[in-house]
């Protein structure tokens, strides 16, 4: 029975509403309590028990009784561990405040904008965790904007930095991978990162406003 799940690439092969029907229809392969048998379907039964006794789903109970009390803001049972799109929106400055990368949200689409230039707007697509990619569908799109087409895959990745309290406070872009493989950090305007420590200013830097 485990192969229903193992061979489905972690897709939900049997919906929740049909799971108990499936379990009740299984044929015993060993005498009851006669030998230890392991099967992941036990977790499915547990989820039904939790729902019946608490009125919450398994994921809701974990969130409300474990993750929230422990302030585990970046932990959950969902497949996408990135934060809500709006949390990434802002202006990000390099350590001397001369180069800025803007992140905007338009009609549900995150976009990255280099130096605020209209012809340097690229859609961001979630990759994993807090990493996004702005790689176009084809190299032709890159060439049509006068960019080189031989950049490494890391060039098209944007990794957002998250503070201890779960706030997006920076991004890292590996734009010179052959010289600076760790990439360059850009700090989000208005966060603790954009303060005196990084820029020698008493107040957080004020970047250009997003239109």
TrEMBL record:
Superkingdom as given in the UniProt entry: Eukaryota
Pfam family, one: DUF3471
UniProt-annotated stretches for the region Disordered: 191-211
Domain spans labelled Peptidase S12 Pab87-related C-terminal: 86-174
Domain Beta-lactamase-related residue range list: 17-85
Record-given protein name: Beta-lactamase/transpeptidase-like protein
